[in-house]
Amino acid sequence: MSATNNDFARLIAEHGSPLVIISRRELTENLRRLTAALPGVRLHYAVKANPMPDLLGVLAEAGSRFDIASLGELARVSKLGVETRDIVYTNPIKSPAEIASAHKTGIDTFFYDNLPELDKIAQVAPGVQVMLRLGVDNPNCVVDLGAKFGCPHDEAEQLLMAALERGLVPRGLCFHVGSQTSIPVPYMQAAVVCRSLFNKMALAGHPLRTLDIGGGFPVSYKTPMMDLEDFCKPIREVLGGYFPNTEIIAEPGRVICATAATLIMRVIGKSQRRGITWYYLDDGLYGTLSGLVFDKTNYAFECLKTKNPEPCVLAGPTCDSFDIISKNEFMPGLELGDMVLVHNVGAYATATATRFNDVPMAKILVR
What we know:
By secondary structure, the protein is of the alpha/beta class. The protein has two domains: about 5-20 and about 260-365, Lyase, Ornithine Decarboxylase, Chain A, domain 1; about 25-255, Alpha-Beta Barrel (TIM Barrel). Helix content is about 30%, strand content about 25%. It contains eleven helices and 16 strands. The chain has helices spanning about 5-15, 25-35, 55-60, 70-80, 95-105, 115-125, 155-165, 185-205, 230-240, 255, 290-295, and strands at about 20, 40-45, 65-70, 85-90, 110, 130-135, 170-175, 210, 245-250, 260-275, 275-280, 300-305, 310-315, 325-330, 340-345, 365. The strands form two sheets. Strands 1, 10, 11, 12, 13, 14, 15 and 16 form an eight-stranded mixed beta sheet that branches. An eight-stranded parallel beta sheet has the order 4-3-2-9-8-7-6-5. Helix 2 (about 25-35) runs parallel beside helix 9 and helix 8 runs parallel beside helix 9 (about 230-240). The protein starts with a helix and ends with a strand.
């Protein structure tokens, strides 16, 4: 974000802390960069990454489509006037009531990765299109989604034919390589598997028309990751070579919203414990920094002072010993009221925050 230290101080004086500042410019620029890196790929922002209405509105105005995983998320984007043709409902496990309700609103494609799910879809929404999700084994990601979702590759052809047997229309295949993938190779490997299945279905007289490459595009936190253009180049080349006349969609979340937000906290307490200085902040693991727990994010912390950094511990405001943000920080001596900044908190941080201890959640400002 382009805000200066003086801007942060002014905003805290006006709005209080903790405060999350979201940049409209950064959101739209991130969307533009990924669009340029993956030309021809329809981008559906993953609402679960950050479902804040104002943020969704910025992306809708910028031309983004949306990826949802629940009826609540469907309601959020529908309130913005987003047409169902610009929404993909990618959760492969849904209750019959969810399927029926989504179908009633106009969702015409449902995702699945197993026979029981297929049976639910066929019973509640007969004749709809379906997308089969393939499992991905990827050790080079931070959050592995393959353990919970995706069918084994050797079962995929059977599951595609099972859809036909139930009167459904196989539209295509999808995969997700896992969140924060450090290298593009898993996308390329998955594309090879998908090409083979596309060929088999075409030979059987039931050609597929859509490939969904999921999300997982990396963002640099404390650990640097590949530049987005360099990351996407081999993916772009594989898709162009293997799927030249195919509708291709993606579900980016983190890469769109992560770098667009900064958290400002203030020191509300200070103590010496076993020779180490502890700073207690007005946000923590149960709040905006929940991403340290649920998302395994390695945030970097900074303050406005620069002289004589010392080892310290950062802790959150709740009355729970679990609420320790970081045990291995180095910071100059801080006083009550001093600010601590955390950049790149736009993804998952506010989405998974809680109200534990009735501690107020951070105020969110979109500007």
